[in-house]
Amino acid sequence: MRSSSVRTSLVVVVALIVGVTLVPFMWAITSAFKNDTEIFGDALGLPGTWRWENFVTVWTDGNFSTYFVNSALIAVAATLLTVAVTTPAGYVFGKLVTGRGRNLFYVYLLVMTLPVEAIMVPTFYQLREFSLVDSRLGITLVLVATGIPIGVFITRNFFRDLPSELMESARTEGAGDWRIFHTIMLPLAKPPVLAVAVFSFLGAWNEYQLAVLLLLSEENRTIPLGLAQFQGQHSADYGALFAGIVLAMIPSIVVYLVLQRSFTRGLVAGALK
To answer: What is the per-residue burial (b if ≥16 Cβ within 10 Å, else e) of 91-110?
Structure first.
């Protein structure tokens, strides 16, 4: 009886959490199809008329087509580079580095504790020296650098817990470290690699603070910057503003839903032996 009541309480708590999470989400989606009168008159109701023109307005008048392309290029490039760097680094820290060399891994973990605000000023001046301010390449490299610590942490934990017998058997066949990594370890590391990819993509797609600092011109702005600018210029058109918010959410939602299972497995990998 007690177990049943506890289970019921947990279900109620979970339902409340889901409701609190989904209500603002659904409110934003329905508001994207309303005019200002409907938004303020019946915030939680469905639109009387589904106004698809709100999306046309934000895509054309708000220049969201340019922002969307910029965000996509930066996010995809940052994700691919982060995965390319962190996967072999995680393998090295998990399987090859021993003794005092492991201390370098803890330096990576220390970087994870630094807030973005702590590196914004030196990052700006460093990129300015290389003429990379107000360029998609510049912010991509910064996003890769900030994503490396968590990526190495995830992949290192996975590789650390893989049986060392796999490496020993391959070495007896004459395989070197690179061949062992490429042909044996990497195919097994799909879950953590995809978890790193999800983290990197979502972080790059939603990045605002670094984008404000480094992307100065209109043609290089990303979705978060464009949304903030659109809000300032069209503050009276809340329907179009919500349409821009929905457009900004779509890629993040799609990536997470497609990779959800691998993302969860990647986070759990290495946590339990």
So the answer is: bbbbbebeeeeeeebeebee
